[in-house]
Amino acid sequence: MIKAQRYQDIVKRFERLNVAVLGDLMLDEYLWGRATRISPEAPVMVVEVDRETHAPGGAANVVANLMALGARVRVFGVVGKDLAGDRLVSELKHHGADTAGIVFDPQRRTTRKTRVLAHNQQALRIDREETDAIADSTAEGLIGRLSRDLDDCGALLISDYAKGVLTPVIAAEAIKIAGQKGILRSANPKPINAQLLAGCNILSFNQLEAGSLTSGPIDSDQSVSHAIHQLARRLEVETIVITRGACGLSFGGASGDAHHVPAHPVEVADVAGAGDTVISVMTMALVVGASLEESAIIANHAAACVVQKVGVATVTIEELLNDWDD
Hints:
single chain, alpha/beta, four-stranded mixed sheet
């Protein structure tokens, strides 16, 4: 448990932290409208679009989460030399992120995820992306920027969506550089790349992802504990976090007991991006001196805030402070 004053003290320390984010940068596009009829061309809804909005997505949503909580963020990733890439970098700069670590690759297109929403409910998602590994020359540029610009950061958060940025070389060099500089290493990888992240302090998976990496279903506290111990040993990391939706989240290491934090009963509007929020908040809390249990409790509160919002969302310090009800 955590007392109210301690909770507030930790959250208030988030402001002005320096955090680096490395990963797959995306642009989220939203088409908002109304579905009033069925198309005469096919048995599908016709959505009359009223407005269009854009937001940072993928690793860029992790950046947005950190900045919403007051952190100063350095962004490392790859975008295409296209309108979407320009828009994404401009959006990040507008919110105060340091984008000097972003490499523009004219041979790739910027990942875009377009969501069509009718009456605030997602009706369709359109993905435009490339998932091949980034070119060697692009990787060299990214490694050079990481080596140069991590010195005063408290943490390196690797946000992997398996879109080509987290190559074996990039993962190994990023973890090595951060380790040499004494920086906390955290990540929320896709299962296909999890084995690349040995040496991280903390890895976070959702329940389905963790299940795909372990033997047997994850459907109870006992099976979650077994999965945590198994993953921590096999992936060679200190702490594994498993987010469990309505069951909250669990965390632990290769030895000792796993710990379970129950979810807050809230009305869920959209779970998209909740995992980004959990790893962002846990990383920040650990950097400012919170224990693993305290970090997990605060991250659980943050996730409860964001799932009540439509679309990929963030949480502010004010919302996090106001969410305390224990």
